[in-house]
């Protein structure tokens, strides 16, 4: 009994005091190997016009299939990848894979909407980012206007550098979106000085839209101001028809969320695109 408890105590100690950093170290080592071992894959989630019901975009979202720990969510490894700088090579892989897949679907007549790719602020510190993106577009043969880069408001922390890079990206012709809008420090009036095309209202606002009138007011305000400033406004994380109705009533034009579809592996997305084409219900 005592021995048993002793053992448990040891495990308790190891999993709670050191466990976190052990897990983190394991993750970091694994992350370094993941690229060469092809353990990353992309899932794709549709973005829908709330006006016509048509597909207007696809967002690529990374997934990590770890050989021992199984599926690891991006929320767990993206922050670590950012901390270690590994997000730079990982981000390059994502850009390549997403553009390549988008082009492949275009080539078989399945897709003519932009592909959205999440870009970390750390990638903005990479001097070769612009050159890399331009090379990928060239080699894949994808129009710049078919690539939509999603960045978060954290780029505002280094406003000057970010402004330079965003302007260079705009010159390339890619679309620029602000992801998770409303969770950071930026204001819409600040964003109008940047060459931004879209803002994505964060899921947390959409979640509470109907239960907290404050959130509803926030969402209305973001939609109105966004439209007045000529941004395309898209709502993230739509799960219910009630949320959808609210957004439609308040003139939100684009939406994304489980209500339409979860992010799907490439082969399932391909079927989704095929079914849409043949006119079958989604
Ligand atoms: P995000 O870019 O804001 O992506 C939206 C997240 O919300 C995705 O989670 C998506 O699966 C999830 N989502 C979409 N609709 C719904 C919904 O209706 N309900 C719920 N509960 N969730 C919904 P995911 O794929 O786990 O990605 C989380 C975050 O990880 C992303 O947030 C993004 O910030 C980051 N991320 C994902 N892929 C990449 C990548 O390739 N590069 C970088 N730098 N970050 C990435
Ligand atoms: Mg995103
Ligand atoms: Mg988001
Ligand atoms: Mg997010």
UniProtKB/TrEMBL annotation:
Domain EAL: start-end pairs: 24-277
Source species, domain of life: Bacteria
Name of the protein described by the UniProt record: Diguanylate cyclase/phosphodiesterase with PAS/PAC sensor domains protein
Organism: Neobacillus bataviensis LMG 21833
Residues of the full protein shown: 460 to 741 of 741
